[in-house]
Amino acid sequence: MTNALKWVALSAAMMIGTTALVTAADAPAKLAPAKDAPAKVAPKKEKAKPIHLVKPWSGLTTLTDDQKTKINGLHVAALEEISKIDAKEKDDIMAVLTDEQKKELDTIAENEKAAKKAASHDTKKDAKDAAKDAPKEAPKDEPRKAN
Predict the structure, then answer these.
(1) How far apart are CA 131 and CA 83, in angstroms?
(2) pTM (global) more than 0.90
């Protein structure tokens, strides 16, 4: 387990370094217009969506917009790398399993999916039943009866 965490950390560090290099290498190309390129019509400026960072970075109150953008880009890239590592792990493990074990795994996945669907259906049904059984409010226009 410790080795797996080391690999994830190493992969994330390499990805961050690579992202910084690629970003730096692409910057001049983005700034310099091509000589052969036709003049472009300025696109409408859309309001930029605010970047929502994850903790602990979201707690920093002095981050500039540039820093937020860079941190978000690094986070997104790290998530992509983690996803790739997870997919590779799954593929490697599946290569170790026999056909019978793969079928068993498919059955387990189908059962979990059915159980999750049933639980979701039950939750929706319970919510509808609770709403139906809830007492209705008395109309506010009616005067109260005196005893």
Answers:
(1) 40
(2) no
